[in-house]
Amino acid sequence: MRTRSLALAAFFGFAAIATDAAQAASEQVGEVSTAFRWVGRNDRVVVEAYDDPKVEGVTCYVSRARTGGVKGTVGLAEDRAEASIACRQVAANLQFVGKLPLQEDVFTERMSVLFKRLHIVRLVDPKRNTLVYLTYSDKLVDGSPQNSVTAVPVSASNPIPLK
To answer: Are 88 and 57 in contact (CB under 8 A)?
Structure first.
């Protein structure tokens, strides 16, 4: 019975990972190796690009640790909660797809099989007409206060549409 429960948990965990990958829509820009592993992939820092789905012309670059070894290679390792973010305007003009809430979880991606997630949150600072992006990780029982923040100022001639 216990084996069956573990098999079901693993199945749903892998199904959730596949679903998250489609939602996050990240593109790996590059990676550097940080620690050699005899078996499996090395520990590394990866840099991924995320295009904001509601603000055409903004891309967020997130760097974070990825655990290697056997567990990391098969997707069972729990990655560290440390991440850094830099969002930039990558088009001549920003275009908004609808009205934006003052705060929205733009991207989430699993960092472990079941309980840990990376979040990228967009906050709108209407007084300064600026988009602020925050990255952090949470865990079902014990989240991490480690975070990183960046801002993308928007031209005064292009006010941010708010909900």
So the answer is: no
Q: pTM for the complete prediction? A: 0.72
Does any domain span residue 158?
no
Other beta carbons within 10 angstroms of residue 45's beta carbon come to 16
Question: Other CB atoms closer than 10 Å to residue 81's CB: what's the count?
Answer: 20
CA distance 16 to 136: 20
3-class state of residue 59 by DSSP: strand
Report the distance separating Cα 53 and Cα 114, nearest Å. Answer: 25
Task: Give the single-character DSSP code of 161.
Answer: P
* Domain range enclosing 72: 2-153
Q: Is residue 163 part of a domain?
A: no
Structure confidence at residue 144 (pLDDT): 61
Total tally of structural domains belonging to the chain? 1
DSSP one-letter string for 61-121: EEEEEE--HHHHHHT-S---S-EEEEEEE-SSS-EESSPBPSEEEEEEEESSSSSEEEEEE
The whole-number average pLDDT for the span 56-70 is: 81
pLDDT at residue 45 greater than cutoff 90: no
Burial zone of 104 (CB within 10 Å; 0-12 exposed, 13-18 middle, 19+ buried): middle
Tokens 């098999």 -> residue: 7
